[in-house]
Each structure stands twice: as C-alpha cells, then as structure tokens.
Specification:
This protein has a single domain, classed as 3-Layer(aba) Sandwich (Rossmann fold), CATH 3.40.50. Helices cover about 40% and strands about 15% of the residues. It is built from 8 helices and 9 strands. The chain has a 7-stranded parallel beta sheet, with helices on both faces. Strands 5-6 form a two-stranded antiparallel sheet. Helix 1 packs across helix 8. Bound molecules: nicotinamide-adenine-dinucleotide (NAD). Nicotinamide-adenine-dinucleotide binds next to helix 1, helix 4 and helix 6.
C-alpha cells in the first residue's frame, strides 16, 4: 500500500509505539488520525503531525463507529489501521492479595483483544469501499501483540491471553478479508522504551535491556514504526505475526 497521500487511523496513537508510527507515516506524506482515550496527549501529537485527533474508546461500539464516520467525512478515505491501543497489568492467579480478579482479566481482554477486533471490523467495513490499487489492495491492518503471547511471565495470564488472541485471529481475519484486498499483519514486540516502561526505575529498565541477546538494549519506538511502515508497503506480507525482539525469549520472571 502506498503511504503518500493516504490516511491511516492509529489507535493508541497519543503515546509510545502508536505515536512513533504516526510520526513516521506523517514524514512519508500520509494523513494521520490519532484515535485514543488520552485527549491531552492525542491533541498534541495530532497538532504536531497536522493530523486529526478523535477521542476514542476502542472497547466501545459507538465510539469506534464515530471514529470511522468522522475520519471518512466529506468523502475522505482511510486506507490503513494501526492498532496500538493497549494496557498491561501484573496479577497472579493466586497471589498475596487473593485470587485474580475476574474484572481485571475481562478489562485487559476487553481493551487489548476485543478493542483490536472492534477497530478491525469497522475499519474493514469502510475499507471494502475503497478503490483498489494496481495490486488490488484496498486496505492494510497492523496489530500489536507482544512476545507475552508466546512466553507470558508470572502475573501475565490476562495480558498473554489478550495478546495470544490477537495472534490467533490474524490468519482467519486475513482470510476473511482477502476477497476485498485487505491485509492483516501482527507485530509481536519484545521490550520497547515507551511511557509504558518509563514508569519503571532506570536500573530496572537497564536490566531489562541487558536481557536482550542483541542488540542488548530496549527497543526504540522508531524501530517498531519502521516495521509497521514496511508491512504497509510490502503487499506480500499477510496473515502473519512477526516478532520484533532482538532474539529475547522471556523467562518465567
Ligand atoms: N512497550 C513495550 O515494551 C511493549 C511490548 C509489547 C507490546 N506492547 C504493546 O504495544 C501497544 C502500545 O504500547 P506502548 O508501550 O506504546 O504503551 P503506551 O501506554 O505508551 O500507549 C498506549 C496507548 O493506548 C491508549 N489506550 C489505552 N486504552 C485505550 C482504549 N480503551 N481506547 C483507546 N486508547 C486506549 C492509551 O491512552 C495510550 O495512549 C500496547 O498494545 C502494548 O501492549 C508494548
């Protein structure tokens, strides 16, 4: 999919990995629509990139319908969806404070997995109406899973389930949407230096970085963005999950 003069919706685009993708897409001539719960940061990023901020809760049907109806106003087309909205929690099945709350488990599944699917289904409805390019392509979707989908650590039951769900649905959705020329690809990042990790003390972040075989450091959001952009541009990548992790395999803790 061409990037110049195309528009892309980035959920979670107000921060971290999503904001980095928005910046790189903008630098390549794309229009960006930042869809996030965080209005304060979202407005700042959208302004910097001459884009649009649309306050969105990915778990909410009406909110996501409103996102795409606003994004496609006045005949505008949206050709890509980058799903970066997500949260992480740490909670053991049975821990010091008792049993894992069912509410927190549902919340993580609701945002990370159901929220990703909610954005995919409404984006796809619009993308099927796009004119195909010379390759027959009408749209592209990039999801964000995590290596926790494969090596969840202690306390990651909910997070791993949500991210494993994204991996699991990537191929069937790619198959569903193939008839319309819409691709679906998932990135499973290792440990990236974003505000999500910024809350940890510097020594803990350094220790995390040292666990990565090579390069022995935290991933940079720009490196995630570079892969997202490559996926958008390379029509042959479809229905697959790509690890982006410097060869780390997470231990139990
Ligand atoms: N940073 C890492 O090391 C890492 C590793 C693997 C996977 N990931 C995944 O990458 C994605 C982005 O993470 P990040 O590190 O950039 O985190 P981040 O906290 O910087 O950004 C996440 C964004 O999602 C938004 N968001 C949360 N709930 C939302 C909702 N219901 N609706 C709309 N927006 C919502 C937040 O407001 C925030 O702006 C997440 O899905 C995360 O699980 C991150």
């Amino acid at each position: 999919m061409e990037i110049r003069d195309r528009s892309f919706v980035i959920t979670g685009g107000a921060s971290g990995l999503g904001a980095a993708v928005a910046r790189l897409l903008y630098s390549k001539g794309a229009g960006v629509i930042i869809a996030d719960l965080d209005q304060d940061n979202g407005v700042v990023v959208a302004k910097e990139l001459k884009g649009i901020f649309i306050k969105t809760d990915v778990t909410d049907e009406e909110s996501v319908k409103n996102l795409f109806s606003e994004a496609t106003k006045e005949g505008r087309k949206v050709h890509g969806l980058i799903n970066c909205a997500g949260i992480a929690i740490a909670e053991k099945v049975v821990g010091k404070n008792g049993v894992h709350s069912l509410q927190s488990f549902s919340k993580v599944i609701g945002i990370n997995l159901i929220g990703t699917f909610n954005a995919i289904r409404i984006f796809s409805q619009y993308a099927t109406m796009n004119n195909p390019n010379s390759d027959g392509e009408r749209g592209v979707i990039v999801n964000t899973s995590s290596i926790a989908a494969f090596e969840g650590q202690i306390g990651q039951a909910a997070y791993s389930a949500s991210k494993g769900g994204i991996v699991g649905m990537t191929l069937p959705i790619a198959r569903d949407l193939a008839a319309y020329g819409i691709r679906v690809v998932t990135i499973a990042p290792g440990i990236f230096d974003t505000p999500l990790l910024g809350k940890l003390p510097p020594d803990v972040r350094e220790t995390l970085g040292k666990q990565v075989p090579f390069p022995s450091r935290l991933g940079r959001p720009e490196e995630f963005a570079a892969l997202a952009v490559h996926i958008i541009e390379n029509a042959m990548i479809n229905g697959e999950t790509i690890r982006l992790d410097g060869a780390i395999r997470m231990p139990p803790r």
